[in-house]
Amino acid sequence: MALEHLLQAIEEKALEQINTISEQKERAILALHKEYEQKIAQRQKEQLQEQKERLQRELQEQERQLQLNMHFRLLEEKNKILQEIYAKTLKALNDLPEEQMKKIITYLVRFLPEHQQGYIQAGKKTAKILQDLLDVKGENIKAVLPEEGFIFQSALLEIDMRFSQVLAQLRESLEPELVKMLFS
């Protein structure tokens, strides 16, 4: 009997240790499972944050690109409007009645050098006005330009007073201010 008691005590002790080991094993498995789920959740959170940051960078880049495109389109439209304004102005200048054109040509003639020998190429209306304004022979003024205004040429210099050139020079100097006034 003592042997049976001893065997039973050993068996109970063994069962107790097996139960303890099983409980420890289950706790360890649960802890590992919890740790695994935490790591997965952390990794998912990191991946989500990385994806969010990447999407924000892409969105910012697209917004920047869109703003650039809009800026360039706006500049193109402004330039187109200015081109139309200058084209209409040039047409209006070329179509001016003789009396008004005479005032403009009289103003432009003031920029010609005095006592300088040369000849003038001019538009049709301009040639007639110049012959009346200047005391020169008709051979020094030729109505050969397709537009109004004139070009004075001598051995030393050339002065281009065609309306298109005068407008181009005005445009270069006035355009920044004109753009500010029109589009601000």
List the SSEs and their pairings.
Layout: H1 2-94, H2 98-109, E1 119-122, H3 124-133, E2 141-143, E3 150-153, E4 158-160, H4 163-183
Parallel strand pairs: 1-2
Antiparallel strand pairs: 1-3, 3-4
Helix pairs in contact: 1-4, 2-3
Description:
- Helix content is 74%, strand content 8%.
- It is α+β, with helices and mostly antiparallel strands.
- The chain is built from four helices and four strands; from the N terminus they run ααβαβββα.
- The N and C termini lie far apart (111 Å).
- The chain has a four-stranded mixed sheet.
The helix-and-strand class reads alpha+beta
- Note the run of SSEs as H and E: HHEHEEEH
Question: What can be said about the biggest beta sheet?
Answer: 4 strands, mixed
What is the overall silhouette?
A: rod-shaped
How many distinct helices? 4
Which strand order do you get reading across the main beta sheet?
2-1-3-4
The stretches of 5 or more residues where confidence is low (pLDDT under 50) are none
Strand segment tally: 4
Key features of this structure:
alpha+beta, four-stranded mixed β-sheet, 4 strands, 4 helices, 184 residues
How would you briefly describe this protein structure?
By secondary structure, the chain is α+β, with helices and mostly antiparallel strands. Helix content is 74%, strand content 8%.
